[in-house]
């Protein structure tokens, strides 16, 4: 099962809808495929200029190490130097705070990741999960 | 007048609709604000993995030098070394072939740019123009 | 409302005038537009060689995350790894100490940012604020 | 003799004044010291977003190889691969078209460089020369 543009659009729409219902700050939502490449992205009005890159870095970091960015944060709190090194190794896009969530299919295979930035890291992550669940895939946040 | 997410989504949808009606290859559409930052992006199924970066580079190059990417191509054919140098100077994202079109408001101020990659450069540019016209803004392709 | 060169020059002049009256060290003042691009810059005699880049990084970091660089410092003290990652994600120019102040218009829209480096971070920030206030815009330092 | 901020400001003002009198497009003017570091910069309203980087690259390239950027263009036309390689070696900021002019003192020592972008390369160079001459220094365009 693969993540097509239709599913990515569903994730973006549902994540943003979650944000509006939860009264979150302007969100930027980025959906990547299993290879770490952009499938869809939207930045809500009022977001600051580098939110795309932050959201991309959360999702890309999750794919880079095969774990949700919440686990990257846990590792950063234990071994900041490892996360810094992995960021270099991964080419610079690895943001180790919640809000980067893997997208799994029914066989638990990773088909992509969602990254969101704009509100608190916890709220960003909740929006990722809402988006993924609306698409029928399974979120993995840690 | 600014380019909000609503307008950017209109541009993406109309560009993709143009592509389907014209039977183009899978398109990747990227809309940037006046500062060169991502507002919206979609990559159609079947596109190769770096189409986002190519489409981004067309739009970003147009904004960098204040002209549609068709004019960047003309300059590249005359002075390839200038375009190479400008690409470095602009940070690496400047793709000098048609398919990067400035978005002008009613006062001819630049409010953003669209980049498309996936079919021939001419067809990519036509899809940019269709998208911008559907949004009520004015395209500038050269 | 946009930040034109006339306003940027007013900000530079008033910030430097503040520095002279307060007997600060040589200041470097950089004014960016809302997209993070240089509008005006001046480096006072005696400043060290990379003050432009430091001042740029304060202002660019403020725009990147939509908060004055004093808030970036607070975040760095709580989660240094996040600020390190955001610096990579933003392309390298994000200096998380006071002295990067957002420029807001009367609708609280961000129209640019000022970065200053040369004296203590607190004194740099005070010069930013003096400059912005002289231009009729509103400073946001945190 | 050194290039202080007062002289740099004179150069910027005179170059821009030349541009207005000659009815040039919006100019971006960057003045670097002998070490290649920014002393002063101004971007006129309406300029595209990466004009600072282009103007910087002209001036920085001139200092990098110790010749005005017109000579860099001549070299690029003979040996484009050398200029490409020198651009990498110099860190990316070397734009080999006219509009990057060395600033010489009365002993023919290089005290800095001016880079201008916005109009044709020849017109950009003429504005550099006008600026330098107004400051009492000597321009070296090739």
TrEMBL record, chains A, B, C, D:
This is GlcG protein. InterPro entries: GlcG_carb_metab_protein, PduO/GlcC-like, PduO/GlcC-like_sf.
């Amino acid at each position: 099962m693969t993540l097509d543009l239709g599913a990515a659009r569903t994730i973006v729409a549902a994540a943003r809808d979650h944000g509006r219902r939860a009264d979150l700050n302007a969100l930027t939502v980025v959906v990547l495929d299993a290879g770490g490449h952009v499938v869809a992205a939207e930045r809500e009005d009022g977001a600051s200029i580098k939110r795309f890159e932050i959201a991309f870095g959360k999702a890309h970091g999750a794919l880079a190490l095969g774990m949700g960015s919440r686990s990257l944060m846990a590792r950063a709190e234990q071994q900041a130097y490892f996360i810094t090194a992995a960021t270099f190794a991964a080419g610079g896009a690895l943001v180790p705070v919640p809000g980067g969530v893997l997208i799994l299919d029914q066989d638990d295979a990773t088909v992509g990741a969602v990254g969101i930035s704009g509100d608190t890291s916890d709220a960003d992550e909740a929006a990722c999960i809402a988006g993924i669940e609306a698409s029928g895939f399974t979120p993995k946040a840690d």
